[in-house]
Amino acid sequence: MRLIPAPVSELLSNTQFRFGFLPLVARLLVTPEFLVAVRGKTFDWSGQAEYMQSKGMTMIVPLLAMALVIEAVGSVCVILGYRARLAAAVMFVYLGIVSVRLHAFWNQTGMSADSTEATFFRNLGMMGCLLMISVYGPGLWSLDHRSAAIDHEIAAAAERFSSSW
Protein backbone atom coordinates (compact mmCIF):
# COMPACT_ATOMS: atom_id res chain seq x y z
CA MET A 1 0.00 0.00 0.00
CA ARG A 2 1.41 3.35 -1.09
CA LEU A 3 1.26 6.16 1.43
CA ILE A 4 2.02 8.83 -1.17
CA PRO A 5 0.18 8.80 -4.53
CA ALA A 6 2.43 8.14 -7.53
CA PRO A 7 2.11 11.64 -9.11
CA VAL A 8 3.04 13.28 -5.80
CA SER A 9 5.90 10.85 -5.28
CA GLU A 10 7.23 11.62 -8.78
CA LEU A 11 6.98 15.34 -8.16
CA LEU A 12 8.81 15.08 -4.84
CA SER A 13 11.59 13.06 -6.45
CA ASN A 14 12.21 15.83 -8.99
CA THR A 15 15.36 17.65 -7.86
CA GLN A 16 14.41 21.02 -9.38
CA PHE A 17 11.02 20.90 -7.68
CA ARG A 18 12.30 19.84 -4.25
CA PHE A 19 15.48 21.87 -4.09
CA GLY A 20 14.61 24.75 -6.42
CA PHE A 21 10.91 25.54 -6.53
CA LEU A 22 9.90 24.64 -2.95
CA PRO A 23 12.69 26.62 -1.24
CA LEU A 24 11.81 29.60 -3.47
CA VAL A 25 8.18 29.36 -2.36
CA ALA A 26 9.30 29.20 1.28
CA ARG A 27 11.47 32.31 0.82
CA LEU A 28 8.56 34.15 -0.82
CA LEU A 29 6.14 33.13 1.95
CA VAL A 30 8.32 34.18 4.90
CA THR A 31 9.07 37.72 3.69
CA PRO A 32 5.69 39.48 3.24
CA GLU A 33 5.30 40.07 6.98
CA PHE A 34 8.65 41.87 7.01
CA LEU A 35 7.73 43.92 3.94
CA VAL A 36 4.47 45.00 5.63
CA ALA A 37 6.55 46.04 8.65
CA VAL A 38 8.90 48.02 6.37
CA ARG A 39 5.90 49.86 4.95
CA GLY A 40 4.67 50.61 8.48
CA LYS A 41 8.01 51.99 9.57
CA THR A 42 8.42 54.00 6.38
CA PHE A 43 4.98 55.62 6.32
CA ASP A 44 4.23 55.74 10.07
CA TRP A 45 7.58 56.27 11.74
CA SER A 46 6.07 58.24 14.62
CA GLY A 47 3.42 55.59 15.28
CA GLN A 48 6.08 52.88 15.40
CA ALA A 49 8.19 55.05 17.73
CA GLU A 50 5.20 55.60 20.03
CA TYR A 51 4.55 51.85 20.16
CA MET A 52 8.17 51.16 21.10
CA GLN A 53 8.06 53.88 23.74
CA SER A 54 4.84 52.40 25.18
CA LYS A 55 6.80 49.15 25.69
CA GLY A 56 9.41 51.01 27.74
CA MET A 57 12.10 51.08 25.08
CA THR A 58 14.77 53.77 24.88
CA MET A 59 17.11 54.78 22.03
CA ILE A 60 14.11 54.46 19.75
CA VAL A 61 15.40 56.28 16.66
CA PRO A 62 18.55 54.15 16.16
CA LEU A 63 16.71 50.94 17.03
CA LEU A 64 13.87 51.74 14.65
CA ALA A 65 16.37 52.60 11.91
CA MET A 66 18.21 49.31 12.45
CA ALA A 67 14.90 47.43 12.37
CA LEU A 68 13.99 49.09 9.08
CA VAL A 69 17.33 48.15 7.51
CA ILE A 70 17.23 44.55 8.81
CA GLU A 71 13.67 44.04 7.55
CA ALA A 72 14.16 45.73 4.16
CA VAL A 73 17.62 44.48 3.21
CA GLY A 74 17.05 41.09 4.82
CA SER A 75 13.81 40.56 2.89
CA VAL A 76 15.42 41.43 -0.44
CA CYS A 77 18.37 39.12 0.28
CA VAL A 78 16.09 36.23 1.29
CA ILE A 79 13.78 36.69 -1.71
CA LEU A 80 16.65 36.80 -4.20
CA GLY A 81 18.64 34.16 -2.40
CA TYR A 82 21.65 36.49 -2.21
CA ARG A 83 23.63 35.93 0.99
CA ALA A 84 20.40 34.37 2.15
CA ARG A 85 21.93 32.29 4.94
CA LEU A 86 23.42 35.34 6.63
CA ALA A 87 20.30 37.45 6.05
CA ALA A 88 18.02 34.72 7.43
CA ALA A 89 20.25 34.25 10.48
CA VAL A 90 20.24 37.99 11.24
CA MET A 91 16.47 38.14 10.74
CA PHE A 92 16.06 35.07 13.00
CA VAL A 93 17.94 36.74 15.87
CA TYR A 94 16.19 40.08 15.28
CA LEU A 95 12.74 38.49 15.26
CA GLY A 96 13.53 36.57 18.45
CA ILE A 97 14.49 39.79 20.23
CA VAL A 98 11.43 41.63 18.90
CA SER A 99 9.13 38.78 19.90
CA VAL A 100 10.36 38.65 23.49
CA ARG A 101 10.67 42.41 23.91
CA LEU A 102 7.53 43.68 22.15
CA HIS A 103 5.17 40.69 22.18
CA ALA A 104 5.50 39.46 25.77
CA PHE A 105 1.93 38.18 26.10
CA TRP A 106 2.76 36.61 29.48
CA ASN A 107 2.86 40.15 30.95
CA GLN A 108 -0.64 41.03 29.72
CA THR A 109 -4.24 40.05 30.42
CA GLY A 110 -7.49 39.99 28.48
CA MET A 111 -7.93 40.53 24.75
CA SER A 112 -4.60 42.31 24.31
CA ALA A 113 -2.84 39.23 25.69
CA ASP A 114 -4.65 37.02 23.15
CA SER A 115 -3.65 39.25 20.23
CA THR A 116 -0.07 39.55 21.43
CA GLU A 117 0.13 35.79 21.99
CA ALA A 118 -1.00 35.16 18.40
CA THR A 119 1.67 37.58 17.13
CA PHE A 120 4.33 35.94 19.30
CA PHE A 121 3.56 32.44 18.00
CA ARG A 122 3.28 33.64 14.39
CA ASN A 123 6.78 35.06 14.83
CA LEU A 124 8.01 31.69 16.14
CA GLY A 125 6.75 30.06 12.95
CA MET A 126 8.55 32.63 10.83
CA MET A 127 11.68 32.08 12.91
CA GLY A 128 11.47 28.37 12.08
CA CYS A 129 11.48 29.13 8.37
CA LEU A 130 14.35 31.62 8.75
CA LEU A 131 16.34 29.06 10.73
CA MET A 132 15.85 26.45 8.00
CA ILE A 133 17.04 28.93 5.34
CA SER A 134 20.09 29.86 7.42
CA VAL A 135 21.00 26.19 8.01
CA TYR A 136 20.09 24.56 4.67
CA GLY A 137 20.49 27.54 2.33
CA PRO A 138 18.14 29.18 -0.15
CA GLY A 139 17.96 26.29 -2.62
CA LEU A 140 18.90 25.84 -6.26
CA TRP A 141 16.86 28.77 -7.57
CA SER A 142 18.86 31.50 -5.86
CA LEU A 143 21.62 33.96 -6.58
CA ASP A 144 23.79 32.21 -3.97
CA HIS A 145 23.51 28.90 -5.85
CA ARG A 146 24.09 30.62 -9.19
CA SER A 147 27.23 32.42 -7.98
CA ALA A 148 28.53 29.20 -6.39
CA ALA A 149 28.03 27.39 -9.70
CA ILE A 150 29.86 30.17 -11.56
CA ASP A 151 32.71 30.07 -9.01
CA HIS A 152 32.94 26.30 -9.52
CA GLU A 153 33.06 26.71 -13.32
CA ILE A 154 35.78 29.37 -13.04
CA ALA A 155 37.83 27.17 -10.71
CA ALA A 156 37.43 24.18 -13.06
CA ALA A 157 38.46 26.28 -16.08
CA ALA A 158 41.48 27.63 -14.20
CA GLU A 159 42.46 24.09 -13.24
CA ARG A 160 42.17 22.92 -16.87
CA PHE A 161 44.17 25.92 -18.05
CA SER A 162 46.95 25.46 -15.48
CA SER A 163 47.19 21.71 -16.16
CA SER A 164 47.62 22.32 -19.88
CA TRP A 165 50.85 24.25 -19.26
- E-strand count: 0
- Poorly predicted ranges: none
Order of helices and strands: HHHHHHHH
How would you classify the helix and strand content by structural class? Answer: mainly alpha
Instruction: Please tell me what the overall shape is.
Output: flat
Strand content: under 5%
Helix content: over 70%
Radius of gyration: 21 Å
What would the keywords be for this entry?
single chain; mainly alpha
Q: What's the structural blueprint in terms of helices and strands?
A:
Layout (H helix, E strand, L loop, with lengths): L5 H8 L1 H16 L1 H12 L1 H10 L5 H21 L3 H19 L7 H27 L6 H21 L2
Helix pairs in contact: 2-7, 3-4, 3-5, 5-6, 6-7
Please give a structural write-up.
The chain has helices at 6-13, 15-30, 32-43, 45-54, 60-80, 84-102, 110-136, 143-163. With 165 residues, it is mostly helical. The chain has one domain (6-163). The radius of gyration is 21 Å and the shape is flat.
How would you sum up this structure in a few lines?
The chain has 8 helices and no strands. The chain is mostly helical. The protein is flat and about 70 Å long.
